[in-house]
Amino acid sequence: MASAVAVPSQLIDWEQPEQIGLWGDAWARFRRNRLAVIGLTIVVLLILDALLAPALVHFGLLIDPLTQDVTHIEVGPGRFGHLLGTDELGRDTLTRLMYGARISLSIGIFVQAIVLVIGGTIGLTAGYVGGRVDNLLMRFTDIWYAFPDLIFVLVLVSVFGPSLLSIFGAIGIVNWVSLARLVRGQVLAIKEKEYVEAARATGSRPLKIVLRHLVPNSLGPIIVTLTFGVPQAIFLEATLSFIGVGIQPPTPTWGQMVNDGYQAVFANPSSVVFPSLAIGLTMLAFTFIGDGLRDALDPRMRR
Amino acid sequence: MSAEVGRRSKRSASPSFRPRLPNTRAVSLSLYVVRRVLWMIPVIFFVVLITFVLMHLAPGSPWDKGGGRQLSQSVVRNLNIKYGLDKPVWQQFLLYVWNAAHFDFGLSYQYEGKTVASLILGGWPYTFTIGALAFCLVVPIGIGLGVLAALRQNTRTDYLTMTFATFGASFPNFVVGMLMIIVFGVLAYNVSGGNVSLPVTGFGLDDHLIMPVITLALLPTAYIARLTRASTLDTLRQEYVRTAWAKGLSERLVVLRHILRNSLIPVATALGPTFALLITGSVIVETVFAIPGIGRSFVTAVESRDYPMILGTTILFSVVIALANLVVDILYVFIDPRVRLD
Asked: At CA A213, angle to CA A208 and CA A215, rounded to 5?
């Protein structure tokens, strides 16, 4: 008995299981999902494109998106040095698409940042504090929920002018509601868990409980919701541009390119086809990532 | 026990003495409905308040004309007086709320002499017809596809359905509408020599409806199909479903009674937002197909800062959405007996 106690733990040949944390495990499952990996690859390429497009123009590898090749208006793809053709003003479609990605991606990502800040704060406060505060915040959320998204964004953008900032704000301000509800629900469920009770019993301060227990444990569904929110925001921006109240020309955006190209679709179908494909492909990519993340982060799917 | 019951029944000769329990569920249900309907009032009030304040924050005035030709100051002053814009904002707001409560939504700025109410009432039938028809497509097709895909998980049916649903949810409806116009309107016309094609603009209770309704319905159908599949797959894994199979129920019974009744609960909650999506989606579809509904007039109102028109349309949209959510919430009580009404 005594000798057994004296054995230093290093001497015991513990079968060391491979240590895989939640995130490592999720990543392994995410990688197994072929579509999700394809989606991620597309998004990484898009981000690289968005970051590098101005540099490529600077070094002369790409044509400037505003330069008009006036002798080659509405040429088809692959002709006169325009890989995807030109539009009705002789501007290069490829460059404009690549610049359009900058707008779409920044809308998608920054809007989610706004959504996370507003929705996260409101949901966390409502769920954690509870009582009258919860009631008040949720009634507020309910009111916001009654606003018709597209309508309200249109009103906001027409009021504050069609700048990038006002479009971020407008789309962010209408989209935080579902995240707030989700976060609140998560917090309410986790708050009752034994480990939170244990943390409280051992005297952890509320802030520490929130940051160490509530936030990490509700992160999975939040990430999934935010990922699905990205294509929605891109969608909304494309719609605004299509109606003509989005980012104003000459800054290229995909929705605007579809609308411009539509005016001369039979003379030059490529000017509609490529921007439509760009929107569709980006949406698909984010949907695939979202699906992959949902399956990867769902502990019930753990094998 | 039985003796006691017997004695009591003997003593209560009149039937009115029978202990009559109030039907608590019915009472709380009607209270719930009343509360939900009353709750719509502050919601709509805040929608009006926020939209009103926003529009008065807007720089410039509705009398600004593009193209450099400005109205003279005295004309602007008279216009402001005519439309009540010379009063302080809070007075304008109270006046607006008071009038709106009496269904007077003011005069449109862009169409002289027309009331907002008449313009909206003129456009609403188009918007509603297309939206309602689309809804009638979305619900059965979306749910049907979703259930089918889930029951045949990982078969070709599943993959085909989900490919459709994923692609359907990935193209904005203006792209879908344009593609349909190009293919079924123009290409079909050219190829068939003008015999077979669908009308590309305008409204009519005939083949004019086909393309707008499909355009509007595609995205929500895809969304509902994805949602239904996920929720049905979730239900399929439940133990009561395994029990139902194990006790030898027919496939029809298991699917209808045990799977669908549970898997459609989350889908039912999504129907409110779906209806909202269809109604607001009219903004795009009516623009693409040149249909004179309220969506299209809303876009022109936003472009020309027709405040009363914007306000009126926003109110209508939010009332419709609030009503849709109300109906769904009430239906939900009947579908899901676990719902508490407090």
From this structure: 95
